[in-house]
Amino acid sequence: MTGLKTTSILKRLRIASVGVCTALAVSLASVSSVALSKEQQVGWPEKEELKFGFIKLTDMAPLAIAYEKGFFEDEGLYVTLEAQANWKVLLDRVIDGQLDGAHMLAGQPLGATIGFGTESHVVTAFSMDLNGNGITVSNEIWDKMKAHIPTENGKPVHPIKADYLKPVVEEYQNAGKPFNMGMVFPVSTHNYELRYWLAAGGIHPGYYAPHKGDTAGQIDAQALLSVTPPPQMPATMEAGTIYGYCVGEPWNQQAVFKGIGVPVITDYEIWKNNPEKVFGVSQGWAEKYPNTHIRVVKALIRAAMWLDENNNANRPEAVKILSKSTYVGADENVLANSMTGTFEYEKGDKREVPDFNVFFRYNATYPYYSDAIWYLTQMRRWGQISEAKSDDWYKETAKKVYKPEIYAKAALALIAEGKANPADFPEFTTETGFKPPQSEFIDGVTYDGSKPNEYLQQFDIGLKGETVL
Amino acid sequence: MSKMTTILRIPSATPSSNPVLSRIVQSTPALLLPIIGLLLFLAIWNGVAKSIDTSLGQFPGPAQVLEQAGALVDEHAAQREKADAFYERQETRNAARVAQDPSYVPKIREFTGAPTFFDQIWTSLYTVMVGFFIASVVAVPVGILCGLSKSAYTAINPLIQLFKPVSPLAWLPLVTMVVSALYVSDEPAFSKSFVTSAFTVSLCCLWPTLINTAVGVSNIDKDLLNVSKVLRLTPFAHLTKIVLPSSIPMIFTGLRLSLGIGWMVLIAAEMLAQNPGLGKFVWDEFQNGSSESLARIMVAVLTIGAIGFVLDRLMLSIQRAVSWDKSSVLR
Question: Model ipTM?
Answer without folding.
Answer: 0.72
